[in-house]
Design a protein that fits this description.
CATH topology of the largest domain: D-Maltodextrin-Binding Protein, domain 2
Number of helices: 9
Number of domains: 3
CATH architecture of the largest domain: 3-Layer(aba) Sandwich
Distance between the termini: 51 Å
CATH superfamily of the largest domain: Periplasmic binding protein-like II
Shape: rod-shaped
Strand content: 15-25%
Structural class: alpha/beta
Largest sheet: 5 strands, mixed
Helix content: 40-55%
CATH class of the largest domain: Alpha Beta
Order of helices and strands: HHHEEHEHEHEEEEEHEHEEEH
Radius of gyration: 32 Å
Strand order of the largest sheet: 4-3-5-13-6
């Protein structure tokens, strides 16, 4: 089987005869005829029915042509994959992320990815949620790991996972005596929170919806003592018994005895972590590969 076999067979089918085909592909009629005879001798069957005008393939000829086309397609796909591997040997991938997502989610994928693609340099762009969406829209980063926010017409979104959020307090806070329930995460009536200090995330950060729900349930009776860009600062301040804060479930995995996580009897909405990228900027192949890794990890962990 060879490329020239397929080329000659296609030419004869296209132009209807050996004579016409030979003229179009600039080969003598006798040379083309002898080539077809050699194929038929090798196969032991006729591949063309010469009684038809235009000439048609026999059943064996159809099978032979299909086999040649399958080999051609396989070779093209193989060369394409080799080319893709070669183009992924070096390069850069820019990822937007919050510090929380970098610590609890993104970092879990980076090591294995680097082992498979050591020549790809990861450029991490850390910012607030609203900034990350802007970076994704402007193509400053290839994609951003962010949270469920207002919809943008120019952003494509991929949901990764949903995560519960809880209130957190220091174990020194007298409020803990009002916690009820037999489960690991106990609950409290919102009216018991009246007058408590609260640590909030600054505008443009995540958890906005959950803080709005908290204010509604407590009838705005909480006292804001600190606003911060960092959820880690919020957690640290809770440990120091400076106030309450809303913290995501992943922080429970690094739980210490000095923190108590609890939920409101009324409940707080979970939040969705997603990937956003600009519709007008086609994702690099390496970006798609990395996103697939993120999706796999999210499926395993959440």
């Amino acid at each position: 089987m060879s490329d020239i076999d397929l080329e000659y067979i296609r030419a004869i089918l296209k132009y209807g005869s050996i004579t016409s085909a030979s003229k179009k592909i600039y080969i003598s009629q006798s040379a083309l005829s002898q080539h077809i005879i050699r194929i038929e001798k090798k196969l032991g069957v006729k591949i063309f029915n010469r009684d038809f005008k235009p000439m048609k393939l026999t059943e064996a000829g159809l099978i032979y042509k299909k086999s040649l086309e399958d080999i051609e397609k396989l070779r093209e796909n193989t060369l394409l994959k080799i080319e893709e591997i070669n183009t992924l040997k070096i390069g850069e991938l820019s990822i937007g992320s919050t510090d929380y997502q970098t610590y609890f989610f993104l970092s879990k994928v980076l090591n294995e990815f680097n082992k498979d693609y050591p020549g790809i340099k990861i450029k991490l762009v850390e910012a607030k949620t609203d900034q990350l969406n802007r970076f994704a829209r402007n193509g400053i980063c290839d994609f951003a790991i962010t949270y469920e926010t207002d919809k943008y017409d120019d952003l494509e979104s991929i949901n990764l996972y949903r995560e519960n959020v809880y209130l957190a307090m220091s174990n020194k806070n007298p409020l803990k005596k009002y916690l009820k329930g037999n489960r690991e995460i106990k609950s409290i009536e919102s009216k018991k929170l009246a007058g408590q200090n609260i640590i909030r995330m600054k505008k443009g950060q995540n958890l906005v919806l959950q803080y709005q729900e908290l204010d509604k349930f407590t009838e705005n009776s909480l006292k804001t003592v600190l606003e911060t860009d960092s959820i880690f600062i919020a957690q640290k301040c809770v440990r120091e018994n400076f106030g309450l804060a809303i913290l995501p479930e992943s922080m429970l995995k690094e739980e210490r005895d000095d923190l108590i996580y609890f939920k409101l009897k009324e409940g707080l909405s979970s939040r969705t972590t997603m990937i956003n990228y600009c519709k007008n900027h086609k994702l690099k192949r390496i970006a798609n590969i990395f996103i697939d890794r993120l999706k796999e990890y999210a499926k395993e962990e959440f």
